[in-house]
Amino acid sequence: MNDRYLRAVRREPVDRTPVWFMRQAGRSLPEFRAVRARASLIEITRDPALCAEVTLQPVRRLGVDAAILFADITTPLAGIGVAFDIEPGVGPVVEHPIASAADVARLRSFEPDEAVGPLLEAIGLIRAASPVPLIGFAGAPFTLACYLVEGGPSREFLRTKTLMHAEPAAWTALMDALVAMTIRYLGAQVAAGAHAVQLFDSWVGGLGPRDYERNVAPWMRRLFAGLAPLGVPTTHFGVGTAGLLGLQAEAGGDVIGLDWRIALADGWAAVGERAVQGNLDPALLLGPFETVAETACWILDQAGGRPGHIFNLGHGVLPETDPDDLCRLVDLVHEYATAPTPPFVTGSTR
Ligand code: CP3
After folding, report:
1. Which of 123, 221, 241, 323 makes a 20 to 30 Å CA pair with 291?
2. What tens-digit pLDDT sequence spans the chain (350 residues)?
3. Which residues of 166-182 are buried (b: 16+ CB within 10 A; e: fewer)?
4. How far apart are CA 104 and CA 91, in angstroms?
5. Catalytic residue among 10, 27, 127, 328, which?
6. pTM for this prediction
């Protein structure tokens, strides 16, 4: 197996910088759209062979160094009794949003085999067939809470923040339930064969540092402590988190995800002795490839061949992205010389 990804996560030297893309499975790939024409996202996650197939599609086409399990962050929620749907072009919509401690008290405990049996079976199939490590994943508790409390997509997360501040007991109970669910969910993914796990805290950048420290970090700490016995590397990812990186790193994760709003070297300095993942703006892939190439080199220069850089976008692949450009980007990252260079100064160019 190609273990570049796992070596970089452990900050060991690598022959090439490993690269994979968040949201690499799905949306932008014609072969995924062909599958999607006959099966919904939820149906795919309940069909082991189909789920394994769409997970491996980007590995075959793009030549990336890791696979990510095909599922959604909302996938485990049915297992705690949350009814939701995924609306095309919108995202997850929760039928009865959570508004009180009584709503939280109605959540059930998560039983992996019952809740996501076929998905766990898919992991076994992927593990047997994949030439690269498989990353399992889950939504982080805050980001899941945003969906559960808002009921759907939101820009400001006002209901979620209000619950956090006005109903601290309900917030605590909700975080507690989501942490417990996530430890069991990721534990089951690892037992089924996932080599590493990533937590997507996609919406946490909506919080200020004080709120993060008080109302999210303690739960992330507890979550990472609960994952430690699994013995697999963990990635802690967020978007818009330039002001939170130090706190996120302190809360946990062998790898910290960086988005494009901070230069990689500055983000790396903020997280200290960790590996980092990132951080090309996915929007660049909608423009000329020259700009993608130039910016990718700028990012790789900042990593400067230090062990512990996993190349990725700063957020997920956009649906309009041309997969050929993703292939070219993978090749560029792999062909880039990774010999260590003198310390990088932000702003320098090749
Ligand atoms: O590589 C992959 O794409 C693996 C599968 C994957 C999906 N969702 C499938 C999906 C992963 C890793 C996710 C994570 C996810 N889902 C996140 C965290 C990452 C991020 O982008 O921040 C979040 C916030 C969601 C919530 C979500 N699910 C949204 C906002 C949407 C709608 C917009 C969109 O992404 O298309 C979804 C639906 C969804 N999840 C689709 C897919 C392939 C598209 C809908 C469909 O095909 O029915």
Report:
1. 241
2. 999 999 999 999 999 999 999 999 988 999 999 999 999 999 999 999 999 999 999 999 999 999 999 999 999 999 999 999 999 889 999 999 999 999 999 999 999 999 999 999 999 999 999 999 999 999 999 999 999 999 999 999 999 999 999 999 999 999 999 999 999 999 999 999 999 999 999 999 999 999 999 999 999 999 999 999 999 999 999 999 999 999 999 999 999 999 999 999 999 999 999 999 999 999 999 999 999 999 999 999 999 999 999 999 999 999 999 999 999 999 999 999 855 554 444 444 43
3. ebeebbbbbbebbbbbb
4. 22
5. 27
6. 0.95
- Cα atoms in the 13 Å half-sphere on the side-chain side of 332: 21
CA-CA distances (angstroms) from residue 214 to 49, 247, 282, 306? 43, 11, 31, 33
Provide the token pair at 50. 């189909």
Q: Which residue ranges have their beta carbon within 6 Å of ligand 1?
A: 22-27, 36, 40-41, 68, 70-73, 86, 88, 91-92, 137, 200, 202, 315-316
Q: Catalytic residue among 5, 61, 65, 72, which? A: 72
Q: Which residue is closest in CA terms to ligand 1's atom 1? A: 23
- Written as six digits, the tokens of 275 are 């590996």
Give dist(CA 291, CA 348) in Å, integer.
Answer: 16
Torsion from C-alpha of 40, 46, 47, 49, nearest 10 degrees: 110
